[in-house]
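Hello,

I think I submitted the protoporphyrin IX containing FE job twice by accident. Can you confirm which output corresponds to this input? Input:
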Amino acid sequence: MDNRIQEGTNWDIGAKPKSHLKLLILETTENTSSKDLRLGLKSIWQVLQSLKSGVVPSLGSDYPVDPKELEVLIGYGHKFFEREDLIVPTPEGMLLTNRFPQPNNIESKQVIPGSGIIYDEDIQENVADAELVIQLTANSQLSVNRGHVEILKLLNAMDEENPLETGRIKIKEAFDGFGREDHRSWIDFHDGISNLRKGEERKQVVAIKPDNSGGQDWTHNGTYMVFMRLPVNLKVWSEVPYNEQEILVGRTKKSGCPIIRIAPDGTPVPDPRCPVSGTREITEEGNEQFREPSAVVSDEIKLSHVQRANHHRSPVFKPDSRRIYRQGFEFVESVGNTGDYRVGLNFISFQDDPDRVLFILTQPDWLGNLSFGGDPNNQYNGIDKLVTARAAATYFVPPDNTEVLFPGENMFPR
Ligand code: HEM
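Support: Only one job matched these inputs. Its output is below.
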């Protein structure tokens, strides 16, 4: 079996994250058989492969469109593995302990027990906890929207053919996002800077390997996606003084250089060698060695977001290192008809074991009990609510290979 990691994971040398994201969360109506779901997915996959080659089904190949490097990935959620007729055992990483609960099942509304990130008050349901996810990424908004709309057209046509309420696939939610060419986040600091070297290092973190597949060879070169839709409270952030912001992140705001200690007057002290002469930002050539902040920092800086999220453990292929490959996309959306706006991050990470992320999110020395970082007993005004959640889930992203009609087809009964 020549298993490949699905596209859209951007682990390989030369891979470049695309500028636009559409994350479709799919569910099925009650009693939809695995057989019907398999047939539906087969058709959805065909439409998406056609769009990848520039052919819109109703226009045909004589009137091609530019697919703008559309990439398509499919993942399976915990609800999918509740099916009793699947012909493979549940993959190791889809244990119930790795399932993000529904907000109403936890009094504190934590995104997962032990995390300091809580659901927004208006969230009653975690919609990401569904059967399936389809990640569409491309270099234009049209391309990912076209993928979304062509699936809608297909599902409508399938519903018309099928008068029954069962056997239907629905798009439960569609989350939008976009990449930032300035490599920054809504808190204005650089983001995605320390993110493992492309190629072998990233693959070692992303790909399920023989030693962590629990003997399930068919999952090799599969991966797990962890997704969280995370609003950022800009009002809270703007009230944090400049120096405190840098101390909380663990980097300087303008250059992105790592902070190593705090001076007696409270000023954060960056690594004096960064940025190298002739450059202004960490993203510029010559500053590669500063992209992963040093492990040798003062105790106060160990509390920063970057130091809590990465304890510099190696080798990275071991899930114990807790290294993850993040592929975030930002969002801006209106809050109902209030005239208010919500901004945030579609946190998406790929790793061979979802516990790498869940550990970071829940352990006290890491990001556990915190919304972002700092000292849990001395949180700056409101900073404990800086980052909140609207949806979260873990998905198994099966390998692709020439023997299946779509990734994961081998899990379905015939
Ligand atoms: C909206 C929420 C978040 C924002 C705005 C944010 C922002 C940042 C920023 C500005 C950096 C520094 C740039 C870099 O090193 O790449 C960073 C690094 C990082 N963040 Fe976050 N982050 C968020 C949520 C999270 C969550 C929930 C996790 C983990 C579950 C996480 C894990 C990491 C990791 C692993 C690093 C790299 C640390 C390193 O290797 O030095 N972040 N984040």
